[in-house]
Amino acid sequence: MISSISPYNRWFFIAWCFAFCITSCTQTKTVTFTEDIAPIIHDKCTKCHRPGQPAPFSLISYKDVAKRSKTIREVVNKRIMPPWPADPAYSNFLDEHHLSEEQLAIINLWVEGGLLIGDTAKLPVPPVFAAGSMIGKPDLVLKIKPFLVKGDHADRFMVMKIPFELPSDTFIRAIEFVPGSKWVHHVNGRIIFYDDDKKKDIFAGEYALDTKEETRESVFKKMNLLNDDGSYPGNDHYIHSATNYLPGVITTLYPEGIGGFFVKRKGIIYLNDIHYGPAMEDVLDTSYVNIFFGKERPKRPVQEIQLGTLGISDIVPELVIPADTIMTFVTRAKILGDISLLSVNPHMHLLGKSFTAYALKPGGDTIPLIRIKAWDFRWQYFYTYRKMLHIPAGSTIEVVATMDNTSNNPNNPHDPPQQVHGTNGSMKTTDEMLQLILTFLPFQPGDEEISLASHLQR
Question: What DSSP string runs through 14-43?
């Protein structure tokens, strides 16, 4: 029978039969919480939707999920949740929150089918998380001195210190910053460590200062960050970018031997840039850092470069967005040596519309790095690749970003729109930034085969 059909119609007939079969099989399948929904929820949602984490409610048990089933169906179909701005059709990363079309269909069928629980004997065990951490049980927890964030609707930029004194010099594998208030927008932290004969008391001095009233010199004096003789600690006593936080960021814990750093026993975690967004009411911030020690000196310390605002490359044209305009900007930098790329972190503020980054190899081939079609200021991850990407020497990293300063942008901080600047590196949310942070290692043969999934067991 089929042989008498034209080639085109034959293809169409076979495709129709295949689609009909798939649809029929899906529709006849009984979707239950225990076998179908719980694995999706536990894998994609529970990490944030559990006690002690920023999500407003838990999604762990059948009762949790069934109670909010209609809301869940709505937000997953609109791709609002789970949050994963990166386009999985362009590049892929570890721990992607993105739901597949098949997973969306399963959720829809479950809601439409009456929220069946299924055989409770087949209910999977919920994932177990260390309390107060997204990555594991820490070896040490250090807290900031509680800080009152005034509800005055103003951005606030602070510097803070968290002193520590350990039994001996040691190796740190990772530092995780955990916000103690929803108004914490971003944090950049360093470590300053001291020789015993140059610093007696690291706990003296101010613990928090407002940057608008201070200079670097005044901060170091008031916070007692100088050596006892008044000199600055040497460059080899600083660890830059020891910890960072942005909305949605989960601290990366690389496999043993990659990343980490050596510290002397006496030091200070210096939060040299902690930004609180405009708070509506007074709130007490009780943020803290989790310390994960390493067993040995890191074999391959991670390096970092930053393109764009406050980075190594210019933004073209100048980052000024007039009112009622949509503009596209480019920033690019050449890579001088072979590198193995670990992760990327795109950053813009509220006018961001789209963001694409790629590497152009010397021969003209393109290596896709990341594409975000619909920018969402709330979710700005350090995206870690499943395996390292080899970027050959002579390649150019290029970023193309579009910003929307019109009234059609629901996140526009100004109504009506006003001209917005990003030329002075301001970190206020009402100003703009365009950055791409790259974390990398000098390339070694075989890097492309190393899985970057952490195997921390706690």
Answer: HHHHHHHHHHHHHHHS---IIIIIHHHHHH
- Whether residue 16 lies inside any domain: the answer is no
Q: Coil, helix or strand for 84?
A: coil
Rounded distance, CA 353 to CA 306, Å? Answer: 20
- Last residue of some domain: 301, 332, 354? 301
Secondary structure letter of residue 63 according to DSSP = H
The model's pLDDT over 374-422, given as tens digits with 9 standing for 90+, comes to 999 888 888 999 999 999 999 999 999 999 999 999 999 999 999 999 8
Tokens of 312: 């190594």
Kindly state whether residue 4 falls inside one of the protein's structural domains. Answer: no
Residue with the two structure tokens 């740190």:
172
Q: Is 210 exposed, middle or buried (0-12, 13-18, 19+ CB in 10 A)?
A: exposed
Interval 38-58: pLDDT, tens: 999 999 999 889 887 778 899
The two three-digit tokens of residue 395, written as one number: 């390649």
Residue 256 and residue 181 share a domain: yes
Number of domains in the chain: 3
Sheet holding 315-316: strands in order across?
315-316, 325-334, 396-405, 352-360, 366-372
CATH code, domain carrying 237: 2.60.120.230
Q: What was the pLDDT predicted at 248? A: 65
pLDDT at 271 over 80: yes
**Residues 359, 367 contacting (CB under 8 angstroms):** yes
Residue 95: inside a domain, yes or no?
Answer: yes
Task: State the DSSP string of 269-286.
Answer: EEEEEEEE---SS-EEE-
Residue listed under structure tokens 């010199």: 217
| Beta bridge partners of residue 268, listed in sequence order | 163, 192
Residue 26 lies in a domain: no
Does a cis peptide bond (omega within 30 degrees of 0) precede residue 82? Answer: yes
* Burial state string for 118-147 with b = 16 or more CB within 10 A and e = fewer than 16: beeeebeeeeebeeebbbbebeeeeebeeb
Give 451's DSSP letter. B
Regarding whether 286 and 151 lie in a shared domain, the answer is yes
Host domain of residue 65: 31-122
End-of-domain residue from the set 301, 324, 347: 301
**Average pLDDT estimate for 96-111:** 95
Determine the 3-state secondary structure of 297 from DSSP: coil
User: Residue 433 in contact with residue 427, Cβ under 8 Å?
Assistant: yes
Residue 250 has pLDDT above 90, yes or no: no
